Amino acid sequence: MSGPLDLAIIIASLAVAAWAGFAGFRDRAPDRVQFAGLIVLQAGVVAMGVVSGVALLRGERPAELETFVGYIVTTVCWPAVAFVLGRMEPTKWGSVTISVGCLVIPVLVLRLEQIWG
Questions:
Q1: How far is residue 94's CA from residue 112's CA, in Å, rounded to a whole number?
Q2: 12, 62, 73, 99: least CB-packed within 10 angstroms?
Q3: Rounded CA separation 98/114 (Å)
Q4: What is the set of domains in the chain, with CATH numbers?
Q5: Mean predicted lDDT score pLDDT of the chain
Q6: What whole-number distance in Å separates Cα of residue 77 and Cα of residue 83?
């Protein structure tokens, strides 16, 4: 696992969550900034998945391999799910959905770090 990449993902996720939460608070539908943030976040988690996959192929192993694989798959899919759900709901609840989805990602990343270490 890559410490700086994980930190960047956590910061980006919390920034998108704050932006989307503020938009939901103001009764605003999801905007392009939220979706762009989700795309950047998706790129980051895919990069984290690739780094983790390479580490696994080199022979490094987390404490619980099956749990780690489940978390990494969920983490890689989660921003895309938040994107789709946000697009499906063009009201303030779409922004709230994106915000909540982005608040889950730091938890997943931290759990991945725990399992890897």
A1: 27
A2: 73
A3: 25
A4: 3-116 (1.20.120)
A5: 93
A6: 10
Looking up tokens 């503020």, which residue turns up? 22
Cα angle: 4, vertex 76, 109; to 5 degrees = 45
Alpha-carbon distance of 5 to 7, in angstroms, equals 5
Nearest 10 degrees: Cα torsion 8, 12, 15, 17: -130
Residue 63 phi, psi (nearest 5): -60, -40
Residue 107: both structure tokens together: 């938890």
pTM of the model: 0.89
Give the mean model confidence (pLDDT) for residues 103-110: 95
Res 117: pLDDT: 77
Report the C-alpha gap between 13 and 26 in whole angstroms. Answer: 20
